[in-house]
Every structure is written in structure tokens, then in C-alpha cells.
Amino acid sequence: MEMSLDQLQARLSRNHMAAWMQLSVVSAAAGQIILSAPWREEFISNPDHRFLHGGILATLLDTAGSYAVATLLGRPAQTVDMRVDFLRPAFEAALTVEARVFHYGRNLATVDASVLNPQHTALAAGRMVFLTADHRSTQT
Fold first, then answer.
1. What fold, for 5-131?
2. What is the DSSP secondary structure assignment for residue 56, as one 8-state letter?
3. Is this structure's pTM higher than 0.90?
4. Each residue of 12-34: pLDDT tens digit?
5. May I ask which residue range the UniProt record assigns to the signal sequence (predicted)?
6. Do 95 and 36 contact (CB within 8 A), yes or no?
7. Can you say whether residue 31 is alpha, beta or left, with left for phi > 0 and alpha for psi between -120 and 50 degrees?
């Protein structure tokens, strides 16, 4: 069940963290999504050097990964595992995050994602595993 751009943006806007980060859907296709995030002063980790907190980069990767899965599943997916490589500092600029599902199974999906600066230089890369099974059916 694929989601339209409008459906993806509406769902993303309901996510409190994504709304606070002012994330927007740039484009999406089956198994792929590109999100954008404007710079926010609250993202700063080191006020002397003015670079972005690593948790913000990880959140961007995780959110884009979940919504890349949503393009196939019809809803954002819950993170099961996540690895992040911080490649270089992110300084004051709008950010783009691209995510692509490269394995989609009955229970799990695996996604690769990258956070890019306006020059399309990778700042962080991540690989995430998401739950695709309906977790509500296993609750007791």
C-alpha cells in the first residue's frame, strides 16, 4: 500500500519531533524518500563552533528510513536496529536526507540513508532495520 506525497507529509506533520524539526517531504517513490530540514538554532551542539548535534543527524536518518518504508507499508515503521556513521560536522545550513529501502521482507525492512548538506556532501550515513510485521497482533 503506497502513500502519496500529501499522505506522507500529513503523516510526517503528525510526528511531534518531525514537526518541531520542520521536516518536509521533497520527493518519494516506492521504497525511497527525500526529506528536507531547515536549520534551527536548537540543533547546535557546540555554541563555540556552531555545529549540529549528532542526535539530530541520527533522528533525520531514522525518520527518513521509517518513511521510506512507509512508501511500501502504508505507515511509518518502528525501528528495530540502527547504525550511524558521523562523517563530518554539519554546520549552519539546510539539510537533506535521502533514504532507500534495499530489503523489504514480511517482518523486517532494511534501509540505507544519508544526510547531505546543500553541496550534496554526506554528513552522516546510516543503516536501519524496521519492523514491517503488524506488531499489534503479537501483544498480549
1. Thiol Ester Dehydrase; Chain A (3.10.129)
2. H
3. yes
4. 999 999 999 999 999 999 999 99
5. none
6. yes
7. left
